[in-house]
């Protein structure tokens, strides 16, 4: 998350607040744990893409997440024939 923020800083010539980033990430990971989800981190490529296409608000990240969720829901069945061990190896 902090690496993503530093990369974003270099592209936008702005400075992030590390404490705010880490508090937000920690809170999000604690809440996701309550639902049995895995912890998350900043997505560097998504951030860089948003900056390069001129995104100016956090809404661009929300839209990106919703599109990704839609793709996973629609095309998720395509991964069914792949053995779970292979998917676990990719995830690690």
Question: What's this, in brief?
Answer:
Helices cover 67% and strands 0% of the residues.
Terminal residue distance = 18 Å
The assembly state of the depicted protein chains is single chain
Q: Main β-sheet, in a few words?
A: none
What global shape is seen?
A: globular
Domain SLC26A/SulP transporter: 2-91
Transmembrane segments: 27-49, 61-79
InterPro entries: SLC26A/SulP_dom, SLC26A/SulP_fam
Membrane topology: Multi-pass membrane protein
Task: Write the topology of this structure.
Layout: H1 2-12, H2 18-34, H3 44-52, H4 59-75, H5 84-91
Helix pairs in contact: 1-3
How would you characterize the overall build of this protein?
The chain folds into two domains: 56 residues, no CATH class; 36 residues, no CATH class. The protein has five helices and no strands. By secondary structure, the protein is mainly α. The relative contact order is 0.10. The two termini are 18 Å apart. The model has no long low-confidence stretch (mean pLDDT 87). Helix content is 67%, strand content 0%. Helix 1 runs parallel beside helix 3.
């Amino acid at each position: 998350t902090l690496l993503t923020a530093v990369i974003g800083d270099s592209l936008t010539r702005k400075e992030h607040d590390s404490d705010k980033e880490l508090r937000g990430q920690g809170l999000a990971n604690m809440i996701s744990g309550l639902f049995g989800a895995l912890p998350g981190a900043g997505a560097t490529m998504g951030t860089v893409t948003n900056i390069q296409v001129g995104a100016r608000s956090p809404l661009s990240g929300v839209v990106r997440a919703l599109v990704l969720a839609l793709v996973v829901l629609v095309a998720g069945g395509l991964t069914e024939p792949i053995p779970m061990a292979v998917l676990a190896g990719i995830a690690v």
